[in-house]
Records
---
Amino acid sequence: MRFLLICMTALTLISCEELEVNQFEYTTTTMMGRTQLLVTQDSVVVDFNGRGEPTHFARATQPQEWTALMLSLKEVDLDKIASLEAPSNKRATDAAPFAYFEFTTKDSTYRSESFDHKNPNSMLMPCMEEIIKIQEANNQ
């Protein structure tokens, strides 16, 4: 009986630590402006503000896109993303746009350190690959 109580307590603690992301945000910035891609289970929204005419695009999120995004976080420790080092620093010389991720849960928002567009720390690369697929689907 005591063993069962310990196991149930452990399972409860483990399940409480899982954070369910309800919004993915990918932002890129250049001298020309800022593009923000927001993905929720229901919608994909892209906004551009900067030089020229601001643009806004919205569509429904495909179920397989949401599933793939959630799976891409399987190995991501949200508490550590703010301190992950970027593998390159071309953004420092305007050779690449700078970018960052924000992941929103019910209780918190987790923001990554900035990185060169499409080149985050390896922990975030599976998520980056899914975001690129969503961006490509928007351009079709």
Note: The chain has one domain: 19-138.
---
Amino acid sequence: MAVLQHIHRDSEWIFREMARITKQYIITIEDEHGLTWRHFPRNYKTIFGKLNVVQVEQMNCKHIKGLSKNFMARVFKKRT
């Protein structure tokens, strides 16, 4: 949770590698909008959608204590 948002844009190859090595599912819970010197907001549905991984579930995390409306939980399933 809240790890991928810290990956610098120069290291986005990591998403391709995640899609390659996953057996079935990838779950993300990330701040997709906050922007600071150490946060790189992204839409993970778009990123993984281009990598043969389809989103099967999403939820805004605003109702979870400690998380803001910027946090999205997403479940992706690898296409076979």
Note: Residues 4-78 form one domain.
